Amino acid sequence: MAEDKSIYCASVTAPVNIAVVKYWGKRDPKLNLPTNSSLSVTLSQSDLRTHTTASCSSTYPPPDTLILNGQSEELNNRTLTCLKLLRSMRAELESSDATLPKLSQHPLKVVTANNFPTAAGLASSAAGFAALVYAIAQLYQLPHSPTELSRIARQGSGSACRSLFGGYVAWEGGEKADGSDSLAVQVAPPSHWPGMRALILVVSAAKKGVSSTSGMQQTCTTSALFQHRVKDVVPRVMGQMKEAVEKKDFDKFAEITMRDSNNFHACCLDTTPPIFYMNDVSRAAVRMVEWINEKAGRRVAAYTFDAGPNCVVYYEEGSGREVAGTFKGLLGGAAGWDGERGRAVEAAEEMAGLKEDKALASVVETLTAGVNRVILTGVGEGPMKVDEHLVDEKGEAVVS
């Protein structure tokens, strides 16, 4: 039989998710098993996405390769684990059907590109590993469900398991030592609460000073407050947040989101040595959200911060002028307002007067000097298969 020299390809896009009940800490670092459950909102891929092409061929020289944003990347242990598990699943299919091409035996070439800064607190690893796992699953034609695939994505990046679904997603921490019950489930699809919006204030596109993996380990071993979070705080708020999503109760959603963000960063500060993911611009964003809610007389905006300084502000579409309009009135000179979503936002021009408000003058000054870009987005769908490949017919990476 002649050697099969075909180049097999599958391409997907996968979304970013931003947690409203945070994942932080691992009970098993090797399997990436979390100390607590978490819940997130999947953001629209029209604004934030990872585009990945998985390809394989007998003509590719070993070993497996990864190209990220045009640069060759060394395959770390977490990536190798994902590839091994997916390859094993394909091999099982091939062993049960002799007519299938032996894709599991071919070297893999994965080419991926983000349309947002990598490693800057914008959940790039979540979208990246979700895209990698989903693309290879498509390449290998695996029949497994997103929940089943989430067990694999979790081992690449914990929060990646949530990016395998759209809408509102829970990562159930699980209790079993083998991690079989630590997986993602969809709490509600995007269509359940389609009016959810997010405004991301990009404070810094630089890499974090303390990586999430390193920070988690330090917090787990040194923070007494963290133990309270794991045992008491998160189990209680997970149920409350699921109920808030089910009822589309933004007031409760906002309260839990902000409290959980505060609690998470308090644990980081309680770490030895303390970890400072937020900065002066982050704190100014918190104060501005508080001012917006005070002015509205109710919670119309909710801030949250992952392991980085960028502020994500959740709000409902009907509160767009009060929330996004306020920030546009203050930060109209920042990049990002020129997109379709940004142009649709009506700036609250009276906000310009805040610069003359002595009580808020320093807040406004810090924000205007520190926010260089805004990203407007909303709740969106999970991974999608696409026809645009990042590998050409010769198997060469295409740099777009």
From TrEMBL:
This is Diphosphomevalonate decarboxylase. Residues 14-184 form the Diphosphomevalonate decarboxylase-like N-terminal domain. It comes from Rhizodiscina lignyota. One of its GO terms (molecular function) is ATP binding. NCBIfam families: mevDPdecarb. Belongs to the diphosphomevalonate decarboxylase family. Coiled coil: none annotated. It comes from the Eukaryota. Residues 198-384 form the Mvd1 C-terminal domain. One of its GO terms (biological process) is isopentenyl diphosphate biosynthetic process, mevalonate pathway. It catalyses: (R)-5-diphosphomevalonate + ATP = isopentenyl diphosphate + ADP + phosphate + CO2. Keywords: ATP-binding, Lipid biosynthesis, Lipid metabolism, Lyase, Nucleotide-binding, Steroid biosynthesis, Steroid metabolism, Sterol biosynthesis, Sterol metabolism. PANTHER family: DIPHOSPHOMEVALONATE DECARBOXYLASE (PTHR10977:SF3). GO terms for cellular component: cytosol. Pathway: Isoprenoid biosynthesis; isopentenyl diphosphate biosynthesis via mevalonate pathway; isopentenyl diphosphate from (R)-mevalonate: step 3/3. It is an enzyme of class 4 (lyase). InterPro entries: GHMP_kinase_C_sf, Mev_decarb, Mev_diP_decarb, MVD-like_N, Mvd1_C, Ribosomal_Su5_D2-typ_SF, Ribsml_uS5_D2-typ_fold_subgr. Its EC number is 4.1.1.33.
